[in-house]
């Protein structure tokens, strides 16, 4: 499912120092019920009699030893009967029931949890990750039973350096950090956003084999501006508006310094920060700490891999990418990250012709086409703003439909967070694309925020499209024995490789070059080197 060896290899090739990150043998210092209540070490009824004696467990478990394989089979049986028993019930009920049964196992016995996750990743990824993780975050305060990861709040200012030592593991390799301010396309979910770091780190373990005892999900709770949550009596986070400006940054600074002091080599993945803080923190920390922003950089890498893959699917040479016209809908952290990396790749393919490459990209936000006439033009979007009237008379704020009709793009890529913006008219306009195999990437998450469904894309834009979505959709039956294949364009296909490659190489920093190479190697089956060098 994941082409991680390739991604990790490309990161290794870009980093200078090599060291080993293979964990050493693990000593258990606990005894008796402390072991049974510790999901890292608990084997449930699987402890053999010799271990029961050695660890003070004799009498604390039913006498029969049930092997790991039997426990595995029993869990899968329970899961399958849950599926059967909930058939026909609303999607939300079924999804949360599946998440609960997996979460209970995670709380009890991590070894078994990760085994079933790894073996059944196709079935379980949509539960522990998008789309169900979105639902879990929305309902987190009500679903909360046991804590997972760490919580640093604005009230902990001055305490973080000592708090970091409350984490029980000696070594942490991989941290996913959020402030909950832009969870998927669901907006500000405050402390409830912790579900995202948990889900992302589960993917690290399942896909990259990162040691689960060396991961740490972190929530930085600086308040929330979500009025509904502030009024919710069960809400588990700080009931105050979000910190802003220097007050906000001082909390993130303190956390980063605390992490670095205890685990200088830990990688910190910033996840689901609202745009202004996503860009600002990336610039602030990228040359001081081993960190990256997944929404800006991870998404860019995976989107570029998808875009290049589409060129290959069209039977063209990869360097023909430079000639493709691409409409990007959404000028936030994800859209701008994709645009920056894609323009860089196209410019190199066009002989370092940046202006030529830029010309081929069209950027829209909620106010339509972004041109240099835009009032309060965001500096991050400015490099991609068009000269008004430059392309077939397209004006500032032109609608998506008008842009698609006039540009006839090869690719329509959505990172707007708005479900359905690729409506019937827009999709039908893609039939006039200059490409024989146009690409439609509805990358926003979760499912209800996707710019269009897979079925609508094939129905309105035609059967010969390349379709990809951020959250999974079923393949579409096109009739006459034909299938409309659905690909998933989600940064989960990249970030585990980035983390693993960085860890194995001991790279001190994560550069754009590493991400770019990871994307390009992904699609380059027979290359010994990236395509664009
Ligand atoms: N598939 C993947 O791997 C990833 C998907 N995403 C998804 O992308 C979405 C956006 O994420 P961010 O860029 O971080 O959010 P953001 O809030 O920073 O940016 C959203 C952008 O969309 C624009 N927008 C809003 N309504 C629009 C409309 N009707 N038409 C055109 N543009 C519109 C906004 O003006 C803004 O520029 C989210 O749903 C997120 O889940 C984000 C990262 C990775
Ligand atoms: C996939 C992801 O990182 C997002 O939707 O934010
Ligand atoms: Mg994200």
UniProtKB/TrEMBL annotation:
(S)-malate binds at residues 182, 445, 490. Transmembrane segments: none annotated. Its cofactor is Mg(2+); Mn(2+). The active site is at residues 129, 200. A divalent metal cation binds at residues 271-272, 295. InterPro entries: Aminoacid_DH-like_N_sf, Malic_enzyme_CS, Malic_N_dom, Malic_N_dom_sf, Malic_NAD-bd, Malic_OxRdtase, NAD(P)-bd_dom_sf. One of its GO terms (molecular function) is NAD binding. Divalent metal cations. Prefers magnesium or manganese. Residues 296-533 form the Malic enzyme NAD-binding domain. One of its GO terms (biological process) is malate metabolic process. Residues 106-286 form the Malic enzyme N-terminal domain. Keywords: Metal-binding, Oxidoreductase. Belongs to the malic enzymes family. NCBIfam families: PRK13529.1. This is Malic enzyme. It comes from Citrus sinensis (Sweet orange).
């Amino acid at each position: 499912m994941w082409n991680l060896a390739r991604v990790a290899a490309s990161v290794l090739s870009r980093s200078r120092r090599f060291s080993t990150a293979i964990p050493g043998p693990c000593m258990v210092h606990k005894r008796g019920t402390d072991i049974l209540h510790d999901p890292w070490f608990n084997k449930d009824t699987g402890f053999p009699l010799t271990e029961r004696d050695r660890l003070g467990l004799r009498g604390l478990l039913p006498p029969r030893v049930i092997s790991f394989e039997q426990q595995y089979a029993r869990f899968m049986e329970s899961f399958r009967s849950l599926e059967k028993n909930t058939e026909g019930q609303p999607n939300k009920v079924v999804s949360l029931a599946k998440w609960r049964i997996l979460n209970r196992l995670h709380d009890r016995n991590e070894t078994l949890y990760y085994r079933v996750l790894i073996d059944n990743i196709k079935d379980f990824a949509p539960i522990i990750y998008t789309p169900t993780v979105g639902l879990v975050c929305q309902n987190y305060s009500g679903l909360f039973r046991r804590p997972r990861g760490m919580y640093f709040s604005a009230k902990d200012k001055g305490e973080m350096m000592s708090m970091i030592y409350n984490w029980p593991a000696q070594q942490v390799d991989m941290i996913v950090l959020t402030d909950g301010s832009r969870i998927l396309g669901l907006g500000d979910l405050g402390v409830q956003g912790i579900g995202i770091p948990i889900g992302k780190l589960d993917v690290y373990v399942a896909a990259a084999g990162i040691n689960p005892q060396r991961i740490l999900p972190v929530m930085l709770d600086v308040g929330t501006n979500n009025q509904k949550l502030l009024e919710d009596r069960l809400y588990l986070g700080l009931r105050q508006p979000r910190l802003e400006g220097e007050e906000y940054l001082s909390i993130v600074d303190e956390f980063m310094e605390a992490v670095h002091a205890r685990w200088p080599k830990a990688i910190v993945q910033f996840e689901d920060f609202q745009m202004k803080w996503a860009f600002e923190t990336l610039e602030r920390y990228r040359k001081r700490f081993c960190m990256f922003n997944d929404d800006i950089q991870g998404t860019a890498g995976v989107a570029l891999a998808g875009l290049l893959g589409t060129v290959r699917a069209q039977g063209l040479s990869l360097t023909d990418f430079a000639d493709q016209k691409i409409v990007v809908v959404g000028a936030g952290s994800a859209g701008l990250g994709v645009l920056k990396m894609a323009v860089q790749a196209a410019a190199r393919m066009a002989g370092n012709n940046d202006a030529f490459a830029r010309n081929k990209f069209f950027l829209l936000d909620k106010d339509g086409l972004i041109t240099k006439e835009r009032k309060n033009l965001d500096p991050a979007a400015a490099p991609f703003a068009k000269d008004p009237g430059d392309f077939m008379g397209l004006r500032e704020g032109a609608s998506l439909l008008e842009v698609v009709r006039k540009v006839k793009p090869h690719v329509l890529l959505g990172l707007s967070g708005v479900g359905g913006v690729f409506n019937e008219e827009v999709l039908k306009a893609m039939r006039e694309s200059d490409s024989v195999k146009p690409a439609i990437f509805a990358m926003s998450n979760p499912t209800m925020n996707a710019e269009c469904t897979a079925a609508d894309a094939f129905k309105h834009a035609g059967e010969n499209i390349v379709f990809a979505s951020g959250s999974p959709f079923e393949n579409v039956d096109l009739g006459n024995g034909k299938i409309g294949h659905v690909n998933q364009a989600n940064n989960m296909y990249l970030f585990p490789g980035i983390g693993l490659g960085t860890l194995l190489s001991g790279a001190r920093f994560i550069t754009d070059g590493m991400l770019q190479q990871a994307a390009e190697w992904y699609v380059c089956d027979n290359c010994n080197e990236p395509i664009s060098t």
